[in-house]
Amino acid sequence: MNQLTKMYVWFLSLIAPLKSRKGQTLVEYALLLVLIAIVVIAVATFLGHKTCNVYSRVAGSL
């Protein structure tokens, strides 16, 4: 093998792990986003009824 081919193979061996990590981090971010969305929906559902009651009392008192 000439020197250029050896350098090319070495470069590809460095890049290969980075490509697999990129997909892994994408999945981790997607799971994190789903978890955050579930928490936001749960909090909005829980607080939604309370804020509705507060607005109803304020409107009733006006």
Helix content, binned percent: over 70%
The helix count comes to 1
SSE string: H
Taking pLDDT < 50 over at least 5 consecutive residues as the criterion, the unreliable ranges are none
Decide which structural class fits the backbone.
mainly alpha
Mean of residue pLDDT values: 78
Q: Beta-strand level of the residues, as a percent range? A: under 5%
Radius of gyration over C-alpha positions, nearest whole angstrom: 27 Å
The number of E-state strands comes to 0
How far is the first residue's CA from the last residue's CA? 87 Å
The major pleated sheet works out as: none
Shape category: rod-shaped
What does this molecule look like?
The protein has 62 residues and is mostly helical. It has a domain at 23-62. It is built from one helix and no strands. The longest helix has 59 residues, at 3-61.
Per-chain topology:
Elements lengths: L2 H59 L1
Task: Summarize the model shown.
This protein is an all-alpha fold and 62 residues long. 95% of the residues lie in helices and 0% in strands. The protein has a domain at 23-62.
List keywords for this structure.
single chain; mainly alpha; 1 helix
